[in-house]
Write a structure and sequence with these properties.
The chain is of the alpha/beta class. It folds into two domains: 134 residues, Nucleotidyltransferase, domain 5; 78 residues, ATPase, nucleotide binding domain (Nucleotidyltransferase, domain 5), CATH 3.30.420.40. The protein contains eight helices and ten strands. The strands form two sheets. A five-stranded mixed β-sheet has the order 3-2-1-4-5, sandwiched between helices. Strands 8-7-6-9-10 form a five-stranded mixed β-sheet, sandwiched between helices. Helix 1 packs across helix 3.
């Protein structure tokens, strides 16, 4: 079983072709750029490297559905949906939070996704029972930090942006460039085995905050 994975939720994009058991057949990383047309072009160029025969034998496409850049997420999902429709295969959703936690699986304590949400906020959650829990959402970075248990590991592209707010004597930081193709691949296999697959028309992005357009025109998010 071969499958494709795609992550365009942050500026560090990943595209990979894998075989069951997370065996890498091809993996590419790229820096995302802002213009919509400039986002699509490098994605399609990378996919052409696989060759038509590789794409024809895919079982599914694993796609990171968010949270992250609104534009990047929309573009990645549009590309994945278009391919899935053409190949008549399902989509398998993976969240960026889960991929970041998988990347930090070496850490024995609490792992806190810390993703740049613009507007001086981060997308985050703290998965702890009781009062220590912070539900997935968009928060001022200070609110997340003050709720974090000592020894937690902060991971994501928000770490270098707000490093000065995080006491490195109390917390661990993982803010290097995070390309997550392999983590997305491993998670997508687990999700696929559980049967959580979607037709392209049924899968929606994971947004934790309304977009500027939705706020401006008072449109309710999907």
């Amino acid at each position: 079983m071969n499958y494709l994975v795609l992550d365009t939720t942050t500026e560090n994009g990943s595209l990979g072709l894998y075989q069951e058991g997370v065996k890498t057949l091809f993996s590419a990383h790229f820096r995302m750029i802002r213009s919509y047309s400039e986002l699509v072009t490098p994605l399609l160029s990378q996919m052409e490297l696989f060759g038509e025969s590789s794409l024809q034998n895919l079982a599914y496409i694993g796609i990171v559905i968010g949270p992250g850049s609104f534009t990047g997420t929309r573009v990645g999902m549009a590309v994945a949906k278009g391919l899935a429709l053409g190949l008549k295969i399902p989509l398998v959703p993976v969240t960026l939070f889960d991929a970041l936690r998988r990347k930090a699986s070496f850490h024995k304590g609490t792992v806190i996704p810390f993703v740049d949400a613009k507007k001086r906020q981060v997308f985050s959650e703290i998965s702890l029972p009781g009062e220590g829990r912070l539900l997935p959402g968009s928060y001022p970075p200070g609110k997340v930090i003050e709720r974090a248990p000592q020894g937690s590991l902060f991971i994501g592209n928000g770490v270098p942006l707000y490093r000065e707010l995080i006491d490195s004597s109390r917390y661990n930081l993982y803010g290097e460039e995070l390309f997550l193709s392999r983590e997305v691949a491993a998670l997508s296999e687990e999700v696929f085995r559980r049967g959580k697959v979607f037709a392209p028309s049924h899968l929606k992005p994971l947004y934790l905050r309304r977009t500027d357009a939705e706020l401006k025109f008072n449109i309710k998010a999907d």
